[in-house]
Amino acid sequence: MFVEWLVEAHYLRLFLGLSRIPHFTTLQKFTDRINNALLEKIISSFIVISGTKHIIVGIDSTGFKITHASQYYAELTGARRKHAKLSIGADVLQQIICNSRIRRAPTRHDNIDFRPIITRTSNILPLSVVTADKGMIVRTIIGW
Question: Which of 9, 13, 23, 39 has the smallest number of CB atoms closer than 10 Å to its CB?
């Protein structure tokens, strides 16, 4: 879906210097091969290039299915449906992703990734404000 979105993102293509849109398998191969530390440095460079002095970060998590198996098929075969959980911290003014974490355990609380994402984001630039949903903040502060 990113490649389909890239068709509409004219200014991003100009900024990246793309004369043509890459095939979706190119992006899949890239994500399989890139080192997480290098990806984190690339993302943080976008934030520094934006020229912002402080980050106003918003953090949230969502779950999604890894497979395309329907619920009917999973119940019929007794197969377990595979899920993943994505936690993202983003600068809400610049709309730039600052940090992310993907887990294969959807039953975990969102708060397990709250502090690490905030800490890694604050290493890029000072944080002005941190926003999150009620469940994530309460569980992190109180320690539920």
Answer: 23
